[in-house]
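Subject: sequence -> structure tokens, single chain

Hey, anyone have a minute? Need the predicted structure for the following. Not urgent.
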Amino acid sequence: MFLVRQGFLVISSCLLSLVAASSSRTVSPPVINPGCTTSCSEPWVVHIKADGENDTIHHIWGMHAAPSFLFATTDLSSELKVNWKKLEAGEEKSIQFDSPPNYVFGFAIPNLILFNDVNDTGKLDGIPAEDRQVVSMSEFEWEVQETFNDSTREAAVIFKTSKFRGDPLPNDTHISIQMAAYGVDGRSTVLPHLIRTPDSAQFDIVLDHLFLNLNSTELTLEKKPDYYPMSGFAKPRWAFDFLLFSTEKADGKTMQISKQKSLDDENTPGVFHLDEITTPLTQAGKQGGYLQWRPVSYLTSDRDINFSTFPNINETFPPLDNITLAKSSLAYALLGEDLLTRVTATTTVAFGQPKDNFYTGSNYTTWTVAMGQGSPPIETFSTMVIIVISLGVGIPVLMFLIGGIVIASRRCRQSSDQLLLN
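Reply:
Had a minute. Here:
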């Protein structure tokens, strides 16, 4: 019993020391299109400041053309400057700071890809050109559906598509993206409940009834016996181009993907893995950038593991070899042609697994990713799980010890009784 009690005291002290050592940031409310006095109907730039003791993380998100999500770490006094005339003209370095940022990391989604998954693998790899249709994200128009600010702890924005190729989308046909920046440690309230830190943000995308007939302007369904055809594809799935970028100098170094295993699915039921993409600085234990996610995509708004599929990342990460893919993103607006000399990666993300009835089986797919600075947070057992495990181990040991003492005392008593009789 003494050992169990001592164990709890050690665990409690460790937890208290971690809480005491954890840092925090003051998160400002979202500012949409800062300084824009012209026609800024779309959320071109959303800016959130997260002030720490020694620096500021500027979260910058933009939904015009290629949706882009990045953070820039600067001195506390540095302010964001947007040259709206240059930005609307698509010129490089139209977004700047008073002083050059210490670090920039982020990603952009230039294209959406509809593909015909004839072999039912859920992966885009090996799909021929005739079974793909690439949709530039610039063909969508976006609006801010909602903003949220919880004092200094969290700031969030929900973006939603409003038009496609100039025409309004039906109410139930849309892409929605929720971005959140954090000021304290904790977990996201949205499944898969990723860990959040004061140096991180979270990206959550939903493809909701995204039935786009790319061969015509009609957005209506025509039901068939076993499937809904989409743009002539009997087995349609969605994927997108994924561009990652940082201000780290290339020098032959690349981003890497790794997969971690966990014994605990307390926060994300049924999922025992954690995937990460890290930059060279992070791999070296320094203040680089990372993406972290659970390999699960939910197929219903309830986010039930029984109705889920996989996000499939193409794990070959060739660097950006020309500026075309990045030119419509905020990465180009901030860094321009310098991107080609920095650590970048291009890849694709597709959604699906065998026998999940393709996208049209549910017309709903999610993907949630944490992005941040420094080392990715490590999944650990919660206090409750540690207590349960300790009790599960401690109680049987205690019962075994008590049982042994009782048996030993009985034997001693029997021995003493026999000696008295003799």
